[in-house]
Amino acid sequence: MKRIVVLYVILALAVSCGGRGTAKRAAAAPAAPQAPVSFREPAEYTYRVKAVYPHDTGAYTQGLFWLDGYLYEGTGQNGRSELRRVEPATGRVLQRVGLERKYFGEGIAYLGGKIYQLTWVAGRAFVYDAEDFRPLRSFVYDGEGWGLTTDGEYLYMSDGSDKIYVRDAENFGVVRTLQVTAKGRPVDMLNELEWIEGRIWANLYLYDQVVVIDPQTGEVTGVVDFEGLQEPSDRTPETDVFNGIAYDAASGDIYVTGKNWNKLYKVEIFEKEKGEE
């Protein structure tokens, strides 16, 4: 059974509405029946592989984005965390800067000539010059850092919960907080993020799924099922979970990979037909 079913079993439970009025109010007049709350059913999407490229199996992919023909990748693990510029066709690392061993690198995003990189539990975000990877400054924040993306004005950050924090790029302060829901139920384990055509795409940690989120309401409007993307023959004991989404706005191409995967995939996304599993 596809893992997309797991998401729906958890989230697509019936939601009861209304509550008990006070005894005084009930005695005065019978309560008018309330209309049931209507929750939108997320669209179901699948994929087609358009091209396959090499990916460094030593890269524990935490963040990924596309800029001017190159992939930018943030990697994790203490002592192995880096920010990289990668040649997509070959997987060759063209530029890199490492983090101190005490930092476990997480999501990355580009905004205004700068690259922002989160750390997992250290509560610190680093800012680099996008051209030469020169460190510019850092910010301190509460909680964990997981995924990071941008709408071109603000940064959007996940922490593994059902929350996405909209942050000011100048001071990293929280502007507002989104609770992500599907069918009225919270969706947690939100990991790596990407902004695609006005929506936030988020990896669900430990699942081969991406949820598509309305950035105004937090509602999940779609679920992309990536089960079967990686061939069993490509897996090794070091291979970890599906993670990493990059979008080339100029071409409309989407690239995905995983932690310590040996391949990067260019994919086409399309809606499933009714009844398709």
From TrEMBL:
UniProt signal peptide: 1-21
Record's keyword terms, sorted: Signal
InterPro entries with a match to the protein in the record: QCT (IPR007788), Quino_amine_DH_bsu (IPR011044), WD40/YVTN_repeat-like_dom_sf (IPR015943)
Family matches, as Pfam families: Glu_cyclase_2
Gene3D superfamilies cross-referenced by the UniProt entry: YVTN repeat-like/Quinoprotein amine dehydrogenase
Origin superkingdom: Bacteria
Chain segments annotated as coiled-coil in the UniProt record: none
Protein name: Glutamine cyclotransferase
Species per Swiss-Prot/TrEMBL record: Alistipes inops
